[in-house]
Automatic annotation (TrEMBL):
Homodimer. Its EC number is 3.2.1.21. PROSITE patterns: GLYCOSYL_HYDROL_F1_1 (PS00572), GLYCOSYL_HYDROL_F1_2 (PS00653). It comes from Echeneis naucrates. Keywords: Glycoprotein, Glycosidase, Hydrolase. The keyword Isomerase does not apply. InterPro entries: GH, GH_1_N_CS, Glyco_hydro_1, Glyco_hydro_1_AS. This is beta-glucosidase.
Length: 506
């Protein structure tokens, strides 16, 4: 590689992968004994999702394991991040309701991944709590901590011979704030002042308990890793020369990422910025104690250090400046005393307020390195949405990936960040939560109007295949502004499968 291109080469052993989640792709919402999750309940009763969409069928991955494996093999990914549907394995959330057919489905998927040398990266909880447990209070109920641990224990025991990379929760900040504060996500609780803090407290304890279960019972024999997939936008201060703007930017990061990372990766406790802000606001609200719960010393010791690597989901960057916000109503949002705006110089995407700001990824990775003691970092989600009518020419997505992956590489090579892997979002278009099927993050287009649900690789799939194959981004080989210059990926290295509903990938 030419001298000018040297920084484009990734280190040997770098883990390239793609991601999905159970509710987004599996379908089969009530197949073979599965019972409803909170997302099933929500979508079946909601009129706020475009087209009144739901995940009842979606990509039908529950019935199309071989097709998913075919796409993964054609891309030559090193790893595949997916999640387990709790209510497919334990329909009512508890071990006593064990559904063997659900277990069989995941065994088929895992056996296929291992057979093709694709590393499974398994998320134990990706937002789809069994409805039966929500009826008992969900994550506001501390009993859910032990019930979740029972589920994790079963999964470690059953799948741990093949799974060596576990994530307990996906984006606990989203669970706590969007699910229990804003009430936009299931279980649609709108209690922004106290519920997010209580829920986060239970999620952190549940994560730590599951980590110790693996550590005590399975690590020696299985040798796997356990972490938690956190999420963060990068936040850039409005004026880097104004100290309070710098403090506001740091405060924004502490309230989003530090809320969970500080207890797990630092000292078992919440960031000082959170304790100070919420404590002072609570006092001014004449409350007898802070709305932010506290950990005792035993709990701090139990929580501290309960992650083997740092997993981060990242999509965009915001501009932040200090603001003195209201005291009433009580709210996690107002506790932060800051205001966020879009980074106006960067391209928009199909999702509002999610601009493509590649340079923010490098800054976020460097911040994590400095804040949490140089951990090994896996970028466990990164991608961009386009209109689902886009079937092949998604050159804007290629530009997104080229620039974001380039920034991750700069963070490693120039800033010394220990980046070990990159998981692109996502394998194929799927149910995109509150956006339904209006937008898609996939490398493969799925025709949801066709009962066979054919998958068609987009231009970005060919691009990503080349990145994985070369373990590098080569500008001379692939120019995003001239998408026809990028070589198509070659699936001749795999055996053709007789899959009627999967279009030819070359």
């Amino acid at each position: 590689m030419a001298a000018a291109d040297r920084y484009l080469q990734f280190m040997l052993g770098f883990s390239w992968g793609v991601s999905s989640s159970a509710y987004q792709i599996e379908g089969g919402w009530n197949a073979d004994g599965k019972m409803p999750s909170i997302w099933d309940t929500f979508t079946h009763n909601s009129t706020s999702i475009p087209g009144n969409a739901d995940g009842n069928v979606s990509c039908d991955s529950y019935h199309r394991v071989d097709e998913d494996l075919y796409m993964l093999r054609a891309l030559r990914v090193k790893s595949y991040r997916f999640s387990l549907s709790w209510s497919r394995i334990f329909p009512d959330g508890r071990h006593t309701s064990l559904n063997q057919k659900g277990v069989d489905y995941y065994n088929r998927l895992l056996d296929g991944l291992v057979a093709y040398n694709i590393t499974p990266m398994v998320t134990l909880y990706y937002w789809d709590l069994p409805q039966a447990l929500q009826d008992l209070g969900g994550w506001e109920n501390a009993d859910t901590i032990n019930i979740f641990n029972e589920f994790c224990d079963f999964c470690f025991s059953t799948f741990g011979d093949r799974v060596k990379f576990w994530m307990t929760f996906n984006q606990p900040q989203t669970i706590a704030w969007s699910g229990y504060g804003l009430g936009q996500f299931p279980p649609n609780v709108k209690n922004p002042g106290t519920a997010p803090y209580r829920v986060a407290h239970n999620l952190i304890k549940a994560h730590a308990k599951a980590y110790h279960t693996y550590d005590d019972k399975y690590r020696k024999s299985q040798g796997g890793l356990v972490s938690i997939a956190l999420n963060a936008d990068w936040v850039e201060p409005k004026d880097v020369n104004v100290p309070r703007e710098l403090m506001a930017a740091d405060r924004a990061l502490q309230f989003q990422l530090g809320w969970f990372a500080h207890p797990i990766f630092k000292n078992g406790d919440y960031p000082d910025a959170m304790k100070w802000q919420v404590g002072n606001k609570s006092e001014l609200q004449t409350l007898s104690e802070s709305r932010l719960p506290s950990f005792n010393e035993e709990e701090k010791s139990f929580i501290r250090g309960t992650a083997d690597v740092f997993c981060i989901n990242h999509y965009t960057t915001k501009i932040v400046h200090h603001a003195t916000l209201r005291l009433t109503p009580e709210s996690y949002e107002y506790d932060r005393d800051l205001s966020e705006t879009e980074e106006g110089d960067s391209p928009t995407t199909a999702i509002k307020n999610q601009r493509a700001v590649a340079w923010g990824l490098r800054r976020l990775l460097s911040w994590i390195k400095e804040e949490y003691g140089d951990p090994e970092i896996y970028i466990t989600e990164n991608g961009v949405a386009t209109d689902t009518k886009t079937t092949y020419d998604d050159s804007a997505r290629v530009f997104y990936y080229k620039t974001y992956v380039d920034e991750a590489l700069k963070a490693h090579n120039l800033d010394g960040v220990n980046v070990k892997g990159y998981i692109a979002t996502s394998l194929m278009d799927s149910f995109e939560w509150l956006n339904g099927y209006k937008v898609g993050f996939g490398f493969h287009h799925v025709d949801f109007t066709n009962p066979n649900l054919p998958r068609t690789p987009k231009y970005s799939a060919h691009f990503y295949y080349q990145v994985i194959k070369n373990n590098a981004i080569q500008y001379s080989q692939c120019r995003p502004w001239l998408w026809s210059s990028c070589p198509r990926y070659d699936s001749s290295h795999i055996q053709r499968l007789p899959l009627a509903s999967t279009q030819k990938l070359v």
